[in-house]
């Protein structure tokens, strides 16, 4: 991403610098459907409504779930 931003700045003839000031590794899970199904069932049982996707501000890839995923991958 940092290189892409540098290229963009150069391509439009602008002056500027791109500085990386925060980096958090993202993770993607595989084989999570049993967990998803359990969450859907539990949510419906408790709330009586279907589980919906959260709005992006509340479902950022940089939330605490990434700590869980890091531990899962280390098992």
Return the structural class: mainly alpha
Tell me the number of strands. Answer: 0
**Poorly predicted regions:** none
Q: What oligomeric state do these chains adopt?
A: single chain
What distance lies between the first and last C-alpha atoms, to the nearest angstrom?
Answer: 29 Å
| Gyration radius from CA atoms, angstroms | 19 Å
Shape, principal axes of CA atoms: elongated
Number of domains: 1
SSE sequence, one letter per element: HHH
Helix content: 40-55%
Summarize the structure.
By secondary structure, the protein is mainly α.
Structure in words:
This protein is an all-alpha fold. The chain has one domain. Helix content is 47%, strand content 0%. It is built from three helices and no strands. The longest helix has 15 residues, at 33-47. The two termini are 29 Å apart. The model has no long low-confidence stretch (mean pLDDT 79). Keywords: Hydrolase. GO terms for molecular function: hydrolase activity. This is 5-nitroanthranilic acid aminohydrolase. Its EC number is 3.5.99.8.
């Amino acid at each position: 991403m940092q290189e892409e931003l540098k290229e963009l700045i150069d391509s439009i003839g602008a002056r500027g610098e791109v500085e990386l000031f925060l980096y958090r590794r993202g993770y993607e899970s595989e084989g999570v459907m049993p967990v998803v199904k359990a969450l859907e069932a539990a949510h419906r049982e408790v709330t009586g409504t279907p589980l919906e996707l959260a709005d992006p501000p509340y479902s950022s890839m940089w939330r605490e779930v990434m700590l869980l995923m890091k531990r899962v991958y280390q098992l």
